[in-house]
Amino acid sequence: MFTASMQFDLGEDVNALREMVHRWAQERLKPMAAEIDRANLFPSELWREMGELGLLGITVEEDFGGAGLGYLAHVVAVEEVARASASVSLSYGAHSNLCVNQIRLNGTETQKAKYLPALVSGDHVGALAMSEAGAGSDVVSMKLRAEKRNDHYRLNGNKYWITNGSTSQVAVVWAKLDGVVRGFLVDTDTKGFEGRPIKNKFSLRASDTSELVLEDVRVPKSALLPGVEGLKGPLSCLTQARYGIAFGAVGAAQAAYDEACRYSKMRIMFDKPIARFQLVQNKLVWMANEITKAQLMCWQLGKMKEAGTMQHYHVSMAKRNSCWMALECCRLGRDILGANGITDEYQVMRHMCNLESVITYEGTHDIHALIVGRQLTGEDAIM
After folding, report:
1. What's the start-to-end Cα distance of the chain, in Å?
2. How far apart (Å, rounded) are the C-alpha atoms in residues 230 and 363?
3. I need a surface site. Which of 8, 95, 108, 305 has the fewest CB within 10 A?
4. Mean pLDDT, the chain, as a whole number?
5. Contact 357, 202 (CB under 8 A)
């Protein structure tokens, strides 16, 4: 665990879950993290492993195979998975935080019974399809359309930057129906649905990132998510995703600190370990300080979410802070490792490259500044 951190008691169940996920992630994920990124390939067997460990349904009711724990438990697991592999963490979060929780929160009992057990076990993989090539944070500009027919809906359009897009069995697809944004549960083997992997990424290489093409995709009326409509649907997804990302970035920062601190004790310069140099100690102290502050912010955010007092601008503050802090930790860690830091024998550069995506997706650093600025001043910033 992060030995420089203050000790935070999150409750018996969450503490036990964290210990279990930490052990699994460090023993199972971390040794393969560099290789799966090199290979651009997510190990499909991990889905059932995570299902067996209970990680895919932490927030899901026991009736559908889940653990019935809260969101804080879920994001603590995200933090530990991201500490080992940001690629696996991204795919994991898209499945369990976005797809599964949208069905759990907004689906009918029939929809939950149909989809959740297979998603929770890892037999099926889930995706959430919201972003489009020309409309990242601009949800209003969504172009994918749904048309109501006699006994079904027809979906036409494209989605872009969709995690698990080409490997999932079910996708929650946001589309405009008569000008109103609605969610649809789409089986990805439906005729007209195609996932096209996005190649040549420098970041999050092992996670499946895809373009989705929907051409006259026919779904039954029962595919419509009844629990939410309008911008509240996709905006709640953004808030949910950003909440998890804030924790995952802290995990990546911890990995950078762990490696830099360990390396500084082993690297000998001028007949002494570089851990004895004042400048190196100052960098490690900065990292430990900022990680601890980010943990405090994130864990307080988790408690607020459990209590129902969390607001979207609180999430923006945490996501913005965690991502910035984690990137700075990686840069300092790479500096401590010197030339060795640029090779994938060490993990710090991999985490740094991955964080360059994390600080961008689900709202850029600047977008979150505008969200928080609007809350502080009561004024919309001049574009």
Report:
1. 43
2. 19
3. 8
4. 93
5. no
Alpha helices in 267-343 (DSSP H): 278-307, 312-337
pLDDT band at 237 (very low <50, low <70, confident <90, very high): confident
Q: Name the catalytic one among 52, 211, 362, 379.
A: 362
Residue 7, H or E segment: none
What would you report as the CA-atom Rg of the chain, rounded to the nearest whole angstrom?
Answer: 21
**What gap in Å lies between CA 28 and CA 66, rounded to an integer?**
22
> For residue 238, what pLDDT is reported?
80
- Which tokens in the block code for residue 82? 């991201």
DSSP 147: E
The Cα 85–Cα 42 span in angstroms is 11
Active site residue 306: no
Residue 143 and residue 133: Cα distance in Å, rounded?
10
**Separation of alpha carbons 102 and 240, rounded Å:** 10
Q: What is the tens place of the pLDDT at every residue in 192-204?
A: 999 999 999 999 9
Tokens representing 244 are 């998890």
Report helix, strand or coil for 173: strand
In sequence order, the β-bridge partners of residue 162 are 210
Q: How far apart are CA 264 and CA 274, in angstroms?
A: 5
**CA pair distance 232, 317, nearest whole angstrom:** 20
How far is residue 172's CA from residue 176's CA, in Å, rounded to a whole number?
13
The dihedral formed by the CA atoms of 309, 310, 312 and 317, expressed in degrees to the nearest 10: 140
d(CA 382, CA 370): 10
Distance CA 315, CA 280 (A): 32
β-pair partners for 128: 172
* pLDDT tens digits, one per residue of 60-100: 999 999 999 989 999 999 999 999 999 999 999 999 989 99
